[in-house]
Amino acid sequence: MKQDYLLPEETTAQYKARGYISLEEICPPDEVARIRQILMRMFENKVGYEEGAQYDFASRDDPNKPQTFPSLHDPSHYAPELLKTAFHRRALAIARQLLGPDAALYGEHALLKPARVGPETPWHQDEAFRSPDFEYRELSVWLPLQPVGEINGCMQFIPGSNRYDVLKHRSPGNDKSLHPLECCDEFPRASAVPVPLPAGGCTVHDMRTLHYTGPNTSDSPRLAYILIFNVPPVYKPGLRKFDWLEGRRTDSQVRKREWHRRGGIAIEVMRRLPRARLTSGRWVAWAAIRAVSKVWHRAR
Ligand SMILES: O=C(O)CCC(=O)C(=O)O
Questions:
Q1: Residue 1 within a domain
Q2: Is the CB of residue 140 below 6 angstroms from any atom belonging to ligand 1?
Q3: Residue 4 is assigned to a structural domain of this protein
Q4: Distance in angstroms (rounded) separating the CA atoms of residues 180 and 204
Q5: 126 lines ligand 1 (CB under 6 A)
Q6: Is the CB–ligand 1 distance for residue 70 below 6 Å?
Q7: pLDDT category, 293, cuts 50, 70, 90?
Q8: Which residues are within 8 A (CB) of 265 and not within 5 positions of it... i.e. 6 or more apart?
Q9: Residue 144, by phi and psi: left (phi above 0), alpha (psi -120 to 50) or beta?
Q10: Does the beta carbon of 226 lie inside 6 Å of ligand 1?
C-alpha cells in the first residue's frame, strides 16, 4: 500500500511515551458529513438491533424506551462504503506505522451520546474487554463527527498508562448484564488529560491506555466512529485471569446468540470473510482458537 499518511518521528515517539496522540485532521469535511449521515440513519432505523450489533452502551436494552447511549458494532457490515474513505486509508497507514506491517482492521464501533442525556464512558483499558488467553498489540483511532470538548464527551487519557499491566475492572454496579467495564484499581486520576478536537480530527490510543469520556451536557448529540486495528494476537493460555469477564452476559450477546441459532452465523461468517487474513498463520490460529472457545463457552 502506498504510504500516504506518515506520522513524523516526534509523534510516534509521543505515542510510545504517553500511549496516545491526537491529530487535527485525518478525515476531510465532506467525509465527516457523509459518515455522520450514514451512522445517524442507522441509529434512527435501529439497524443491527435484532442481530445484537446495536445496543445501549450504558443501560439494559428496552425496546420500549429511548436508548440513553446507542452503540453499533461494525457498521460497515451494513454500509460497506464506510471503509471506502480517506479516513480508513489514513487510519490503516497510521496503524501499520505504529504496530507494524501486519496490522489490519479488527473492528469498528460507533457511539452516540444524545444531547443532554448521553452518560459517561467509565475509565477503562480496552484490553480488559478481550480474552486474557492472548497477547495483543492493538490500537484505536477515535474520530469525532462534530467538534468535541469536555462539555460533550471528548476523550481523556492517563499519560503513560500504556505501560501498566491490565488493571482490575468491574461491571458498573457489578451488574454483568451491562456493557461498560470500569477500572476499579488505583491510578492517578488527577493526571487525566482531556483532548478537545475539531470534527474530523482524531485520537489514537493503545489498548492499555486508560481512557474516559464525560457525559454529553451540550444541546447536540455527540457521535464518534472508532476503527480498531491489531496484529494477530498470540495464544498464551492460562497466564492471566480477567474475573470481571466471567459470567458477563449482556442483552445484545443474548440477541446475537439467538440470531446465530436462527442461521445468522452463516451471514456473520460471510460478512467477516473480507477481513480474514488467510495468508497469516498467526491470524488463522487466532481465528480458529477464538471460534472453538466461543462454541465451548456457549455449550457450557
Ligand atoms: O466514545 C466514547 O465514549 C468512548 C470510546 C472508547 O472507549 C474507545 O474508543 O475505546
A1: no
A2: yes
A3: no
A4: 20
A5: yes
A6: no
A7: confident
A8: none
A9: beta
A10: yes
Report yes or no on 227 lying in a domain.
yes
Mutate to test the pocket of ligand 1, among 129, 156, 226, 227 (most ligand atoms within 8 A of CB): 226
pLDDT at 3: 54
C-alpha cell at 118: 448521553
Split into its structural domains, the chain has a count of: 1
142 alpha carbon – ligand 1 mean position (Å): 7
124: β partners: 211
> Is residue 154 lining ligand 1, measured as CB closer than 6 Å?
no
Could you report the per-residue pLDDT of 143-196, keeping only the tens digit for each?
Answer: 999 999 999 999 999 999 999 999 999 999 999 999 999 999 999 999 999 999
Residue ranges of alpha helices (H) inside the chain are 9-18, 29-44, 86-99, 251-259, 265-272, 281-299
Residue whose C-alpha cell reads 485532521 in the numeric block: 25
Domain containing residue 275: CATH number: 2.60.120.620
Q: Whose CA is nearest to atom 10 of ligand 1?
A: 126
Across the chain, which distance is largest between two alpha carbons, in Å?
51
151: domain range? 9-299
pLDDT over 70 for what percent of the chain?
Answer: 98
Q: Inform me whether the pLDDT recorded for 299 exceeds 80.
A: no
Q: What is the mean pLDDT of the chain?
A: 95
Read off the amino acid at residue 51: E
* CA 153 to centroid of ligand 1, rounded, Å: 9
Query: Is 193 contained in some domain?
Result: yes
The pLDDT assigned to 1 comes to: 44
